[in-house]
Amino acid sequence: MNRNDLIACHDCDALLRKPRHSAKGSTRCPRCGAMLYRPSAVQLERITALTLAALFTFLIAQAFPIVELDLNGVTSQTTLTGALVALWNEGMELVAVAVFCSTFLFPLIELTALLYVLIPIRAGVVPPGFNLVLRAIQFVRPWGMIEVLMLGILVTIVKMTSLARVIPEAALFAFGALTLMLAVVVLFDPRALWDVADIIKARRARVERMLAPASPHAPSGSTPPQ
Ligand SMILES: [Zn+2]
After folding, report:
1. Which residues, at least 6 apart from 138, have a Cβ–Cβ distance to it below 8 Å?
2. pLDDT-derived band of residue 222, with 50, 70 and 90 as boundaries?
3. Whether the predicted pLDDT of 39 surpasses 80
4. What is the rounded average pLDDT for all residues in the chain?
5. Which of 10, 64, 154, 202 is in Cβ range 3.0-4.6 Å of 171 for a Cys bridge?
6. Cβ contacts of residue 35 below 8 Å, gap of 6+?
7. What is the whole-number distance in angstroms between the Cα of residue 13 and the centre of ligand 1?
8. Given a cut of 90, is residue 55 above it in pLDDT?
9. Around Cβ 111, how many Cβ atoms within 10 Å?
10. 45 CA to middle of ligand 1, Å?
11. Confidence of residue 83 (pLDDT cuts 50, 70, 90)
């Protein structure tokens, strides 16, 4: 049996024969009942739309002011990036870097990387660097803890009320919405994309074989190569 035809259940490690892909119907592990496959076509559409929406929400969240800083008697509204600069200047460099990575850098990498593979895959093309990008997504995912950090920041900011005040406007609501969207995006298992890529490659190989110049077994209408 081909090694690529086997999969392991991620919950109970049972070794199973890879189910044939069907447009509808999900597959569960016969031993523990864990979900092995969801219908990939429907899932792709949904997750692409959601990822795109999350990216726009992310831009709104970063572009609008979220805190009002009171520094030396001068009050100014600032975005999350501005608040990070203020944190840095206050001597909290480590916190600033950690917050920057988990609320800006890693979510941005994950969203753009997902779109980079999802959009071509939907069109039936495997983009260059596909394997590398999927690995990058798996790598940054555990670090993009935007929801946990948002809570942390809120608590911190509320406690430093003498220094800063949260502005309950566009950016804060965008962050709230983004937290929910990312929670759903994270439910998507990028490993399903390997299977879709396999199907695309197999389909393309079949088409190439069909379009290949006439073979010795070609029908009598065409002239066989000499
Ligand atoms: Zn199982």
Report:
1. 190
2. very low
3. no
4. 79
5. 64
6. 26, 27, 28, 29
7. 6
8. yes
9. 23
10. 27
11. confident
pLDDT higher than threshold 70 for residue 162: no
Q: How far is the CA of 14 from the centre of ligand 1 (A)?
A: 6
Specify the pLDDT at position 79.
Answer: 87
Distance from the alpha carbon of residue 195 to the mean position of ligand 1, in angstroms: 19
**49 falls in which pLDDT band (50, 70, 90)?**
very high
The residue to which tokens 């969801």 are assigned: 38
pLDDT value for 144: 67
Q: Cα(24) to centroid of ligand 1, in Å?
A: 21
The yes-or-no verdict on residue 6 having pLDDT over 60 is yes
Q: How far, in Å, CA of 220 to CA of 207, rounded? A: 21
What is the CA(196)–ligand 1 centre distance, in A? 22
Residues with Cβ–ion distance below 5 A, ligand 1 = 9, 11-12, 14, 29, 31-32, 34
